[in-house]
Amino acid sequence: MWHTLQPYKDSLILLTALLLGGLIGSLSPETGLWLKPVGQIFLNLLFMIIVPLVAVSVTSSIARMTDLKKLGAILVSIMAVSICMAIIPAVAIVALALVFNPAQGVTLDLQQTLDTGAAHMDFVGLLTTNDFSGLLSKSNILALIIMSVVSGIAIGQSGDDGRKVSALLDSLNTVIMKIVSIIMFVAPLGLGAYFASTMASQDPELVVTFARAIGLFFATSLLYLTLGSTCYAWLGGGYPGVRVFWRHALAPAVTALGTSSSLATLPVTLSTALKMGVKEEIADISLPLLVNLNKGGASMITALKIVFIYSLLGLDFGVDVFMVTLLISVLSAFVIGGVPGGAFLGEIFIVTTLGLPLETIPILVVLGAITDGVSTVINVVHDLTASQIIDRLQGWNGRAAK
Known about the structure:
- The protein has helices at 2-5, 9-27, 29-34, 36-65, 72-99, 123-127, 141-156, 159-184, 187-199, 206-248, 250-259, 262-275, 280-293, 296-313, 319-334, 345-354, 361-401.
- It is built from 17 helices and no strands.
- 78% of the residues lie in helices and 0% in strands.
- By secondary structure, it is mostly helical.
- This is Dicarboxylate/amino acid:cation symporter.
- It is found in: Cell membrane.
């Protein structure tokens, strides 16, 4: 039994700590408030490392990707399919969450810490800063990601000098990941303490909203894994593609659920893609990249987190917030999800970009930890359908070239 749960060890420990923190905060509010500085120290440690983590990780990963620029048509197909497969589940779950509001009247009493301007998005300010020093602030993570992507592309196109810089960035990334792992060692204590302080002054009904949000995610995931996968497989191979997909999809899905890792499932995914008739050269090139780029499950849970928190805080989820939600969801799937060790990067990205209270971070972590296994299944299963679509696109491109 423990061997089966081993991949979820960190999530189970974290959820247990959050549960204990929530109980302490609910049963003894004074103790919960007393524990807040402990949680604040942990979050501050994360905030101090977030800028170098994003800058180095994203830049180095993009720099390595541009080594494949000679495979331009395939790479463009991979990126286009990955972005589409991030947008579709994000839009779907936002629509369902707005109809079946999981908060249902429960409101977090955090109005005094809210950035009241967050509902009116300054897209220029979100995407850029007017000074280099602005990139060194956690409040400008989105601008930092954009500049890191541009820098990565420039490094990848700079020949021998670029390769030297890329090697240096890889070494620096290893050191930063070690720093992150040291900080994350105290994550259960830090987040448990912070959640205790959050729950100290909140309605106990807040716990019920978690169950509704998680139930909504699981129901949407089931729908997306059945109808969505069928549609993608049809796009990739017509009705024969649908039949061959469903004949072979179980093995990688079960492996993903058991390992909770798209990367650990990659050998099974590669083998399955070949059994499904995907050309070997397409599978060998596309699937290792799709593991990092195609994360529809991450996009879906990111979008749900934003809608859920906005509802809990009583904020208006307008068109501008919806557009930023899609942008954050795509980046979470397309860039953030590929940052190794960045367990809380998505939560911090959401909070800092949208100007939300720090007290919402443990809530976002709870949703992410419980849904992690199902999110991984979505990622892996749709790596297969994405490889079918890319294979078909390359076949069309080949015929067009002739």
